[in-house]
Amino acid sequence: MNMRSLKPALLGSLIASVALPLHATSVYTDPVGAVVTEIPAGTTVLSNPFQHAKLFQGEVDSVNGAEVTVSGSLPTLDGPHYLQVISGAAAGSIIDIDSAANSSLQLVGGADGIDGGDIVAVRKH
Q1: What is the mean pLDDT of residues 95-107?
Q2: What residues form DSSP beta bridges with 123?
Q3: How far does Cα 46 stand from its chain's mean position?
Q4: Which of 112, 83, 114 is nearest to 99 (CA)?
Q5: Which of 47, 52, 85, 106 could form a disulfide with 93 if both were Cys (CB 3.0 to 4.6 A apart)?
């Protein structure tokens, strides 16, 4: 096969590979990390939540009043931080951390709704 007969074949393949996706009627992909927000009718102010990276993520071992014990060792927390509940009955809750030591967190206002087995994350304010 010589180069002159090869060029039209390559050009035809290129055109076909570009033209095929143009005929798709629908495409769907599950979003990754998406948050769905129901917006009520009327005038509503909506803002994207901006947050620091997770310093820790793990499973809750036990809850005793305002004290939450997690599996794994917590990093040293300097400055204000909060606990974000990732999964469980209280998923989406954000609670300020009063103090942290080893694998124990003392939460401001208690740990209502947080249970053993829930997944939580610690983030800086």
Answers
A1: 93
A2: 54, 82
A3: 19
A4: 83
A5: 85
List alpha helices for the chain, DSSP H.
3-19
Q: Which are the contacts of 3, defined by CB distance < 8 A and separation ≥ 6?
A: none
Q: Over the stretch 30-75, which tens digit does the pLDDT of each residue have?
A: 666 666 677 778 877 766 667 788 999 999 999 999 999 999 899 9
Amino acid identity for residue 91 in this structure: A
**Spatial contact of 89 and 119, defined as CB atoms under 8 Å apart:** no
Single-letter amino acid, residue 53 = A
Q: How many CB atoms lie within 10 A of CB 92?
A: 10
For residue range 14-26, list pLDDT tens digits in order.
666 655 555 556 6
Cα separation, 4 vs 30, in Å, equals 45
Q: Which residues pair with 85 in a beta bridge?
A: 120
**CA atoms of 17 and 11, how far apart (whole Å):** 10
**79 φ/ψ sector (left φ>0, alpha ψ -120 to 50, else beta):** left
Q: Phi first, then psi: give them for residue 26, nearest 5 degrees.
A: -160, 150
